[in-house]
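so ive been stuck on this for like two days lol. basically i have the seq below and the ligand is zinc ion, smiles is in there too. i just want the complex predicted, nothing fancy, no docking runs or whatever. if the output looks off dont worry ill sanity check it later, just need somthing to start from for the group meeting slides
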Amino acid sequence: MASNSTSAPASKKARTTTNKGKAGGPHDTSTDDGIPIPEITQLDYVNLTSHTDAFDVDPIPISWGHPDPLIRGPVICTVRHSSQRNAIGAHSGSYCIYTGLAVAAGKLNPDYVPNLKLTSPVFNIGPHPSWSDPKKVASIDPFGHLTTEVYRGYLDKGFDIRPTIAVTKAHIDLPETREAIAAGRLVPDGKILLASGQSIVSKAAIEPVWYLPEIARRFGCSEAVLRQSIFRMTNGIYPELITRPDIKIFLPPIGGLTIYIWGDPDTIPDEDIELTCRVHDECNGSDVFGSDICTCRPYLTHAIEECIKTAQNGGCGLVIYFRKEGRSLGEVTKYLVYNTRKRQEGGDSAEKYFSCTEQVAGVQDTRFQALMPDPLHFLGVTKIHNFISMSDMKYNAIVSTGIQIVNRIEIPKELVPDDAQVEITAKVYHGYNAGKAYQGIDQNELKKTVGREYGYDKPDEKKGKNVVDE
Ligand SMILES: [Zn+2]
């Protein structure tokens, strides 16, 4: 079959309807509120984006960076309005595939529009001046949590617009916090920290919304090169990256981030009020399962302890948790690197820490911190008093966007697991901030810092016996 679509309709009119039963036309408005009539896509056929019939779209305009949300325009990325859609991709990051599974399994009606009635934020974020500066916010929709408020007119007319940010509260309970209470480092106050060890947080989950021209600028390439690279390395899953250069918004199928706040979020933009902050990249092996090969969980829980202290002193603590597993290379690649590190001659060593990743993946790190400061700007951060990170890359990325960092706090030496000495030594030698605790890491120290070694059972050429490399 030559056709790219199944039961492709004969014309645009046949496959879209307006909620008022007449064709809307380009931004046709039946009222004087300036909001077009939604064209509802009939979802009983498969419409491939590579099919010419899908190209006659009439997207709702987006003016990225405009401080007025109505002039900026709502991000429309559901399957409901294929002709007015103004973003490439789908909602919920990689979980969009599960939405497809749910429809396939007959568990979800593709026409279902979420009931957002009780979903609005439980505390206020913004607006901040940074929201209208694409150099500060280009990977988050700063109005993503305000959908039901600022785009009420669109929702009322029948547009299916999804929040890309959800704002809520929680009590969190960590064994390290309870240990800190037992050791006298933390004292429950019944407000931020309960006697049970629970701490009270405000939090927000954010899915990425990329404004492609600015993303390209930050990575030092043209927008065309960025679009072509993503198209190529995803085996072409988003043809509109190539065919629709007029659509500048992309919801990438990647992990998002979570913001955790201790203390009053309203104080975050106030430079006179102490702000303690860690930006943390996901490490499931350590963060959740306590692997001793790295410092991820101990550094994270130390940061939380410092955040609680700052909040108890009237300031604010902030942890931003990025889903960037294994330096954004993924957990499979990470474990392959672990095996390479442990099995190389002489075992795991600080000297070869970075080269092992490069040997396996072809690159040392794909986290590229260029987009990392965006959630800080989304929250209105202009000054961080205590930055709980030793990373030079994170530090440089943040200060280069105009945020001031006063103190850089290293992980206390006693929190570094034995097998993670390799990681911390390699990182400090290669430019991480040594602070007071890690001074004097030179080439000698690098050479002599070694970690665990795995025996490597490889099949003996003679008779299938296993030999172990020493
Ligand atoms: Zn880790």
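The first helix runs from residue 12 to 15. Residues 1-14, 20-25, 461-470 have pLDDT under 50 and may be disordered.
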